[in-house]
């Protein structure tokens, strides 16, 4: 019996809720929000402040003392003060010796100082154990409890034990610590909250530039040309007709641009005969933003679908249909069904629907919650194989629709090709090169290179 009970004692978890006191320097927005959260999680909190007067804003149950007195009460001190005031800590060096100092500060600009704030703090107080944490969490999120999107807390520091103590607090607050290594990582962690959609910049600017170009191109050919040479005022095309030409063109080109860097990479690897040389920077950056390019392409494709669905409601379309019926009535002649046209229009719609369905599937599988649940092979199957199938279907959809204009001289207004012809250049080039790359005589060496084989190995035995 005794033996059993001693086993149970050993296996039983430590249910004691007693937590170590935590000291927070600074009773500003962040200090108060973090203090409140810590008190809720069972930590006794003592503030170190320039003023020891208790105000209504300070969390109930927290003590407010002078800095030195407060620091003596805890092993962990959170510095909730801006970097430019860190000098005031120097006279406290003796009290802070051996203590864990948590730097939570952020800057106003990327790489504002030569060293990170946490490294600066460590230089000022070499006897303390500095850990960087909490800077990516906002005071507002801590207070309002809306931490669902940002539960991750980056932690870094040179002292493993100190880092562990801080990570335990992070976990106790219901957040997820992510160890980023030594204090050298602090600069990157401090830059993190200052970045504005870094991966989206290139795709967004590229899409904006191309959209403006194609919009002006259509404006010139569909409205200005028609007005000058045919004396027709189609200025209302600006609202739906031109956007519904630009959107599918953008969707197709951007989708092709998702697969173009992969084709470039394959050619470069084949040429070099190794995968152990870095790609040029521009190609690296392009590869990294393929997901964003694909999502913007999906947005354009969705707009195209909506514009097409509302098309029958347009006054211009009703007028054109009515005109056709009246002309048949006036001529007392019913036009026979053109089977070629019927086939073309049905195939065009079917290809569009299938292409869009796969497009949406690609978008869904790129969401982290979905991609985290599939293995690498499944992910590659969807993004590469189904991705190419989507590109084939969407290219065929455009070819079936615009193909009839290729040989028609009326399509070349001002000697310029129709927008649909322009849109096919990049996707067709990608598909043709990809087709060549899957020939066994090319695919085999490429696969070997990707598995580590080198044509001219640097380090041969
Ligand atoms: P804040 O509201 O301006 O509070 C800063 C506190 O620092 C003041 O309340 C004051 O506390 C103390 N202080 C000011 N001047 C001082 C001086 N000369 N000497 C000593 N102490 C001084 O700023 P905050 O928003 O809480 O931000 C504090 C730190 O947290 C910053 O480094 C910020 O980058 C970081 N942070 C903030 C957020 C946020 O959402 N606010 C998020 C992440 C990180 P006493 O009056 O009690 O002495």
TrEMBL record:
Topological category with respect to the lipid bilayer: Multi-pass membrane protein
Task: Extract the InterPro entries matched here.
Answer: Fe3_Rdtase_TM_dom, NAD(P)-bd_dom_sf, P5C_Rdtase_cat_N, STEAP_metalloreductase
One biological process GO term for this chain? iron ion transport
Which locations, inside or outside the cell, does it occupy? Endosome membrane
Q: Which UniProt keywords apply?
A: Copper, Endosome, FAD, Flavoprotein, Ion transport, Iron, Iron transport, Membrane, Metal-binding, Oxidoreductase, Transmembrane, Transmembrane helix, Transport
Entry's transmembrane regions: 204-229, 249-271, 292-310, 347-365, 386-407, 419-442
Name the coenzymes or cofactors required.
Answer: FAD; heme b
According to the entry, every stretch annotated as the Ferric oxidoreductase domain falls at 249-394
Its domain of life reads Eukaryota
Recorded hits in Pfam families, A to Z, give: F420_oxidored, Ferric_reduct
Provide any one GO MF term from the record: ferric-chelate reductase (NADPH) activity
A GO-annotated cellular component: plasma membrane
Domain Pyrroline-5-carboxylate reductase catalytic N-terminal, residue spans: 21-107
The reaction(s) this protein catalyses = 2 Cu(+) + NADP(+) + H(+) = 2 Cu(2+) + NADPH; 2 Fe(2+) + NADP(+) + H(+) = 2 Fe(3+) + NADPH
| Family affiliation | Belongs to the STEAP family.
Its recorded name reads: STEA4 Metalloreductase
In its UniProt entry, the species of origin is given as Sitta europaea (Eurasian nuthatch)
Per the record, the gene is Steap4
